[in-house]
Design a protein that fits this description.
mainly alpha; 7 helices; about 0% strand; transmembrane; membrane; transmembrane helix; CWH43_N
């Protein structure tokens, strides 16, 4: 199915499907192994102990790479559209790309440094990933509005902005509730100290994560109209 998509639409489609699988597969393995409770664990909790830690680390690193590629193609697409429309400054487009790549770096840190092994580094990586991700999709939403009506429909722009707003709203309580959790553990049970804070923070975390996934899903239609061509020139002396 991915191979039949026109242009480069298969790239965000692969990113969305792979990232969704990474979250779901790690969660299922962790729950079946009895390492986490089924009721909304942190995403990182589902990739802390083996065997799910190996699956989580591998798949999230691939997701980060796919996100880097998707963001770069999005940058090239906007640059190409901007040649005739001039709806956004090139420096703003580059800044948005850098913010997105910073978030991908945070994803790599989260996948590499596990929650219980190096909690401080893991938490910094998660903060960078989620914080930069929220800024990236918000900037992309603004750019989308600026490109209307020639390059985007207002319907798609409204969807992107709605996802951005929901992600921003969920990001703030995610940080607030997480800061109130006084211990680092993955085997939470109802009634424990700080369990409510943990639960609310985890719900917000999953909301933001799948907000990113749904946002990249909206790129598929745009990428259908864009193709990359690589030309090689040979010069003879």
């Amino acid at each position: 199915m991915l191979c039949c998509m026109p242009g480069v639409a298969f790239v965000p489609a692969l990113l969305v499907s792979w990232s969704s699988a990474a979250f779901i597969i790690s969660y299922v393995i962790a729950v079946l192994a009895g390492h986490v409770e089924p009721l909304v664990p942190y995403i990182s909790d589902t990739g802390t102990k083996p065997p799910e830690s190996g699956v989580f680390g591998f798949m999230i690193n691939i997701s980060a790479l796919l996100a880097v590629i998707t963001m770069y193609i999005r940058y090239l697409l906007i640059e190409k559209q901007n040649e005739s429309s001039h709806f956004v400054r090139s420096s703003c487009n580059m800044f948005t790309l850098c913010i997105g790549w910073l978030g991908c770096t945070g994803m790599g840190i989260v996948a590499t440094f596990q929650e219980l092994a190096v909690p401080s580094v893991h938490d910094i990586g998660a903060l960078v990933a989620f914080g930069s991700g929220v800024i990236y999709i918000t900037l992309q939403s603004i750019i989308s509005y600026k490109s209307c009506p020639r390059w985007n429909t207002y319907f798609v722009c409204h969807i992107r902005m709605a996802i951005s707003v929901i992600s921003c709203v969920a990001f703030i309580p995610m940080i607030v509730f997480a800061s109130k959790v006084s211990m680092t553990k993955i085997d939470w049970a109802p009634g424990e100290k700080d369990y409510t804070y943990h639960l609310m923070s985890a719900i917000c975390e999953w909301t933001v994560a799948f907000g990113f996934i749904f946002f990249f899903l909206t790129f598929i239609r745009d990428f259908q109209r864009f193709s990359l061509r690589i030309s090689t020139e040979i010069h003879e002396d």
